[in-house]
Amino acid sequence: MVDVTSFLDHIRQKPEYRGQIVHQRVLPGKPATFASPKNRLSEELKGILNQVGISSLYTHQARAIDLVKEGKNVLVTSGTASGKSLCYNLPVIEEILSNRRARALYLFPTKALAQDQMRVLKELDLPFEVATFDGDTPYDKRRDIRRWTSIVLSNPDMLHVGILPYHKQWGNFLLNLKYVVIDEVHVLRGVFGSNVAQLIRRLRRLCHHYGSHPQFIMASATVRNPKELAEKLTGLDVEVVVDDGSPCGKRTWVFWNPPLVDEALGERKSANWEAAWLLGELSKEHVKAIVFSKSRKVSELVLNYVRRILSDRLDIASQIASYRAGYLPSQRRDIERRLFSGELLGVSATNALELGIDVGSLDASIINGFPGTISSTWQQAGRAGRATEESLAIFVAGSDPIDQYYINNPGYFFGRSFEEAIVDLDNLKILGKHLLCAAYELPLSIDDKFYFGESFSVTLDLLTSAGKLKEHKSKWFLSAPGFPARKVNLRSASESVYDIVEEDSGQLLGTIEQTQAFFEVYPGAIYLHQGDPYLVRLLDFENQIALVVKSKGDYYTEPRKDTWIDVVSEIESRRIGDVKLSFGMVDVITHVMGYRKKRSLTGQIIDVVELEMPPLQFQTEAVWLSLPNDIIDRLNFEKHMLAGGIHAIEHAGIAMLPMFAMCDRWDIGGMSTPYHPYTERATIFIYDGFEGGIGIAKRGFWVAEDHLQRTLEVIEQCSCKDGCPSCIQSPKCGNWNDPLDKKAAVKILKDIIKGIRGPRP
Asked: For 34-241, which CATH superfamily applies?
């Protein structure tokens, strides 16, 4: 247990402390509120619960159970460690106890969550079979699972490639399927959520074929639009339970801003180093803590830094590990075991540990940079401080504009509601892939519009015209043999995955999607694994392998890329004062032109290397602003000022859009040009970074007035003179932040905004 006051006093006395704590807020705990379901639980179920010490239910648990028993589809939204799993476990277990033929399918976004819930169910010592079914399940056990298991715990990926395509083997299970449980619904957004929504429709279609109509029970952290999200995912009416009766302990929030190292340039000390130092200090005080970072690379950097910081305390350093996607399953399970057992004092993780895996008792959560959404920020903070225990949450601000906006406006952060989770059911690219999968499972008919919605007919015609489907007697079949599910990656727009292999040993270190591979494991890049740097010697496009060797160099790499956008179609447009705002489909073409090497601690550029790489091209949705010539004339810009001004607006606009859509700046991209042949004007584009688009740019189109005002605000509030990472510089800029003009950006935005009468509702 952490003594927050003592620890913060300890920090303030350290020579490294230079006033980084800019805001501190204590949120009081709350007691539990209990209730009983209207229809009492069976005596057999009560006996099972009593064996594990559960004698009463929170109000949200009782309410959820009542709704399920009324035959409703239910979504429960409540805080971390609030007992959401009982909301689905109790009605499912009770049903199976009374009807041993009944079946339930549990879907978790990760294998680790399924394994964690399996452990919970085993502790209940149930009188029927429960099993996980995923890619690690031995083939000799799969037949028995299909035949005899009452509760199958799996994930959307396995449902997609391992269950639905083999539905004939699962016929009895689907016939008796009473409940489908979907946990951690809030992560089912964007590309992943849009894919899962179509996957659930395929499941419902096959259940209908076998004669069942399962109820859906879902659990989620808080989002702004829970009912809309649940109903888009399932295509069904859903009742939402929002009253959280679980207790929580006192939580102290600390907003930590790394100190300026160059006031004129607005440069701050590395947030990664500050987060690592805080983890080191917590670990030395034997306070169990987790650091959340936004990317695999950064989580590895933090581990690398904390090892340096604790070089004189190897006993402590050995008790800190990193955890992220891309590790082999055995590596992840080992780290989870060590966390749960208390063997580890600290962990540097991505949002892979943001979800509800029980990692034991943690006392502090360090959020290294705004994770992209208010919802994720609270979820990460909630990983520390179980039940009524006191906890500490430290938000370490990065240099991103949105980080600095929140660090300077903490009241706005604590007063904001959660973001909307976006699921796009009209992405024809995603729908088309799932219709091919559905046709493999059962021939399509016009009646399937009931499941797949208004875009079904259009997509069916497109697939038929493209020769991918053929019609026979009002049924549509695959036109060629194959297994389409294997070509559909639920979590990415990319169908290709590269293996990262250590050349000397042949060891598989991890995997990476093609869209990331071009920008992270290009030849000459530094790739980090378990905190150790590896040099990418070769990126084999044909065999999709990145060969790496251990590196002794004390540097990291940044790619230089060139992006161009061609407008395919303009779907909508409207005016914002004198400016035309458009939304439509675009082609994005990106070339990686080279990279630069930078010192790990100082960021000093030590070399620039040119590369020749094939282009990466995809079609997506975009929103764009076309500046009329009279604005340019009125501001009397020179050519380089215009280019720098719109480039600065592009960067700040991308950074601030996550305030209005449940996304991260890495989910979106941009391009600006003083002249675009389509608009014949200076134009700023912001586009979805996923093929076909997932609704982020569309959201930007409708909130543009408020978005532009926040963008101007963050640039004007920044104390730097000519622009810095806290306002207009971007860590993902392919042109290495050149050119940028802060003053020009402010003038352009003010001219645009003076015509805005108020934000669109």
From this structure: P-loop containing nucleotide triphosphate hydrolases (3.40.50.300)
